[in-house]
Structures are given as C-alpha cells and as structure tokens.
Specification:
single chain; alpha/beta; 8-stranded parallel β-barrel; 11 helices; 8 strands; 46% helix
C-alpha cells in the first residue's frame, strides 16, 4: 500500500492526495508540525475519505501512542527505537491487556459508548504497531523485534539508518539495499508486516520488489515544491 507523509495541518492536501489515488496517509508528528488537537480532526477526516491513517508519533511513549489510536488511526509507527527492550515496552502500549498495556479511554473509537471484550480483541487485531528500524541497535535486533507479540510490523527509516550506520547522508547505496532486504526478511519470517520511507526513486523500486505492506513515497511539502518548480519550468 502506497502512502504519503503529511507534515502540516492541511486537510485539503489529504483530499487532493486521495483524488490522485493514494490509499494511505502517515501523519508525521516526529518531524512535522501537526499538533494533537489537529490530529483529532485530521484522522477522522481522512478515514471518511477512505484513507488508511497511520501516525508516526512524536516519541514512542504510552501517552503519544494512546492519543493517536484513540483518535481513530489504523496504526502507529514508533520512531527512534534503540534496542529490543525499548521495542518491547513501547509496542506493549499499543495493545490492550492481556496482550499489552494500553489504557482504556472512551472516544470515537467506541462510538462514544462502552466497549466489551470482543471490541478489545478486535482493536488488538486491527490496529497496527510498526517499529521503526533506523538505529544500529534496532537493526541488530530486528529479527528478535519481529518476534514480539505486540509488534505487527517493521518500518525502515533509511535516512537515519544510513547516518547511524556511518554511511553519511542516504544515497541508496548497496549497503542500504542490503539493510532493507534483511529487515524485510526478518518481518516476513515471522509473518509480520514491513514498510519503509521510500522517497528516493531507486530505493522505492528496490523496495517494491520485496512487496512491502506500507510504502511512503511522497510528502506534502516535497509535492508542493515539485509543483511550483514544474509551473516555473513550464513558463
């Protein structure tokens, strides 16, 4: 499934992306400027458009994760995971007990009513938790992370991973592709999902060979820049 990053509070961008054929949006609260009050409006709006909605949370803690899921997001992407224990603790906050430690709140996801045990089970099965693999520690333990009960998928952050692996600014080197193949294989071996940020054309082509479940291929600000550049070039 192809997705675009949304970095700003811009609902019309979501409408345009949906009209263009994008099936999913990732709200970028780590590097973007979207606040949680805006997220509470944008998530149901995008869901109503038929966009699958994912939130890259600002930081992988219980409060941020619960807010994103209580807004109605289909899943969360947890950035800057350092190691296996960090992944274990963070992912558990995305799932209700007895599987995890997510707290119960009442909001639109229960239609502003009450929940039962079947609803809890359904939430655990249908909201997804991706671990971002973008640090050395996360890469070293990606196979073990894929075994965690509360982890539904692995999501590659190639830019940070390249920097953290000592390769400098990401440029789709052979080593970047090998890292991707390892992470995809680790996820598939455990029946888990995998995805990546793939704005780079060559990296995107390589990723598609391995059939990712979620592939972010554009963002709102880059699309706007490309559009302005194109209009100037056509004068």
């Amino acid at each position: 499934m192809l997705a675009f990053w949304l970095e700003t509070d811009a609902h019309k961008t979501c409408e345009i992306a949906r009209l263009a054929g994008y099936p999913a949006v990732i709200f970028d609260m780590e590097h973007g400027t979207i606040e949680e009050m805006a997220l509470d409006r944008l998530v149901p709006f995008c869901n109503s458009l038929g966009l699958q909605s994912y939130v890259r949370v600002r930081e992988p803690n219980q409060a941020r994760i619960q807010i994103a899921l209580d807004c109605g997001a289909n899943g969360v992407i947890l950035p800057q995971i350092k190691d296996l224990e960090h992944a274990r603790k963070a992912s558990m906050t995305a799932k209700f007990p007895p599987l995890g430690t997510r707290g119960m709140g009442y909001s639109r996801i229960q239609d502003y009513g009450f929940a039962d045990d079947r609803w809890i089970k359904h939430q655990n099965e249908t909201t997804f938790c991706y671990m971002m693999i973008e640090t050395r520690g996360a890469l070293e333990k990606c196979e073990a992370m894929a075994e965690l009960d509360c982890v539904d998928g692995l999501f590659i952050g190639p830019s940070d991973l390249s920097l953290n692996r000592g390769r400098g600014v990401f440029s789709c080197k052979k080593e970047d592709i090998l890292d991707m193949e390892r992470i995809a294989k680790a996820a598939r071996a455990k029946g888990k999902l995998w995805g990546a940020a793939a704005g780079h054309r060559d990296y995107r082509a390589e990723a598609l060979v391995h059939e990712p479940d979620l592939l972010a291929v554009a963002d709102d600000l880059s699309a706007l820049r490309a559009g302005f550049d194109s209009l100037l070039a056509d004068r």
